[in-house]
Write a structure and sequence with these properties.
The radius of gyration is 27 Å and the shape is elongated. With about 325 residues, the chain is an alpha/beta fold. The chain is about 55% helix and about 15% strand. The protein binds uridine-5'-diphosphate and magnesium ion (MG). Magnesium ion (MG) binds near residues 100, 205 and 210. Magnesium ion binds next to loops.
């Protein structure tokens, strides 16, 4: 049997949660018919909701023993919710999806199709439109992805989402990244593994409201930049160098001008040159400090140095697994 864990972070989702449960059980029921080897667990993370989300989760857990939930002591944010879900999931495959049906459960069979034979380690959706979103918001989002991909080595695909069907191996790699400030879009991409994108049109929420304000998203995007790029720290070095170059040019100009025409205001040209030169040097030195700081910053994240996807050991184990299962069909002795 293969267990699929469906991790769902929820924050004030009382309106959509029952709808989500109906929808997801319908889809997983059909999947279990197509692939009899599949079992499911639903792991809801109640991220400090202030509405009836928790009582609804309790009643779902009473009704259905596949339902598990973790309820936070306060609102920690979706990133923490996803981490808790991944950490506590028991499945061989792990799905992360929103509770608001903006990540249509109907994609799950297709996603499993990509992942089941080991061709891909992750299947995910990519919005090709931002229908239903304000123009300003999509403009900023586009700019964010552009800037981010310029200054960071980690590629972040425009329109990529946190709706993912992943193998245990990839999830373990994600969990190895124990950094506190989590930016999942970057983390999913940083760990590597082969990812299959499924393109689709944006779906609007059937009920409830988005808990992301424009300001919240803006702060989150800054977090993304800071977590996956140290370019902002290098900017002061660059400004310092530019300032020093200007100072040198000014100095040369001043010397020539003074020699040729004499000084108009005594001491003024030299003062300006000194200001430019010193502030340039200062910025430059701050930049150097920044470079060291950025190294320390990356070290303190304790990211894994590498992530191996396959070794001979793993290969043999998998081969033995397949060999055992194929002839008997089911194996209950273990
Ligand atoms: N969410 C969460 N904690 C938060 C905010 C959101 O767990 O602090 C969950 C929310 O319940 C939903 C998902 O994250 O399942 C996406 O949130 P939302 O729909 O508000 O964001 P949007 O789709 O507008 O980006
Ligand atoms: Mg949403």
């Amino acid at each position: 049997m293969k267990l699929v864990s469906i991790v769902v972070p929820c924050y004030n989702e009382q309106e959509v949660l029952p709808m989500f449960y109906d929808e997801i059980t319908k889809v997983t029921g059909e999947m279990a018919k197509t692939w009899p080897e599949l079992e499911f667990e639903y792991l809801f993370i109640n991220d400090g909701s202030k509405d009836n989300t928790l009582p609804i989760l309790r009643s779902l857990a009473d009704r259905d023993k596949r339902v598990r939930y973790i309820s936070f002591s306060r609102n920690f944010g979706k990133e923490s919710g996803m981490y808790a879900g991944l950490k506590n999931s028991r499945g061989d495959y792990i799905v992360v999806m929103d509770a608001d049906l903006q990540h249509p459960p109907a994609f799950l069979p297709q996603m499993y199709g990509y992942v089941k034979d080991g061709e891909y380690d992750c299947a995910t959706t990519r919005r090709v439109s931002r229908k239903g979103e304000s123009k300003v918001r999509s403009w900023f989002a586009r700019k964010f992805y552009k800037i981010m991909n310029k200054i960071s080595q980690t590629e972040i695909v425009d329109g990529a989402q946190d709706f993912r069907f992943m193998t245990r191996q990839m999830v373990d790699a994600i969990l190895d990244m124990s950094e506190y400030n989590r930016f999942s879009k970057g983390i999913f991409s940083w760990v590597g593994f082969s990812t299959r994108y499924i393109e689709y049109e944006n779906v609007e929420r059937p009920a409830g409201t988005s808990s992301w304000s424009f300001w919240g998203l803006f702060k989150y995007s800054l977090e993304g930049i800071m977590a996956f790029s140290t370019a902002p720290l290098a900017i002061s070095s660059l400004l310092g160098i530019i300032s020093c170059v200007i100072a040198f040019i000014l100095m040369i100009v001043t010397v020539i001008k003074t020699l040729a025409f004499g000084e108009d205001v005594a001491g003024y040209p030299t003062t300006i040159c000194v200001i430019f030169l010193l502030s340039g040097l200062q910025l430059f030195c701050t930049g150097i400090l920044g470079q060291y700081l950025s190294k320390t910053y990356l070290e303190t994240k304790h990211r894994p140095i590498y992530i191996a996807k396959e070794t001979d050991e793993l290969y043999r184990e998998r081969k033995a697994d397949k060999g055992q299962k194929a002839p008997s069909g089911e194996d209950k002795s273990a």
